[in-house]
Amino acid sequence: MKYATRGFTLIEILLVVALMSIVMALVAPLGINQVEKARAQTEWLTLDRELGRLSLNAFLASEFITVNAAGKQLAWESDSGKQGVIEFEQLFFSPEQLLTINPNGIADPFEITVMQRERQRTLSLMPEIRE
Hints:
Distance between the termini: 77 Å
CATH topology: minor pseudopilin epsh fold
Largest sheet: 7 strands, antiparallel
Number of domains: 1
CATH architecture: 3-Layer(bab) Sandwich
CATH class: Alpha Beta
Oligomer: single chain
Strand content: 25-35%
Shape: rod-shaped
């Protein structure tokens, strides 16, 4: 009596599932690391954009803006009383840094230091030398 061989045996299916599990266990951490790097870079660009926007607002409104960067938070307040806060997940400001943007749109001090993941980065706030 002949049996038709169709489909896969249970052992073949288990072997494929085991191999796929091993491959996923090796690849998944690399993928998660890339996602975290992308999030950190997005927050870095958000910080750069916000500080540029605050500089422009100070210039357009002819007022001083005080920026306080502490921990995972960037907070600002203008002379007219406008305030704002941004919470970051990947960026960390240590030690606490206080910036003042004058009515000409120039920040003092000229740079801000940030811990991004495990590395320290410095963002220049001078328009002619910005990245």
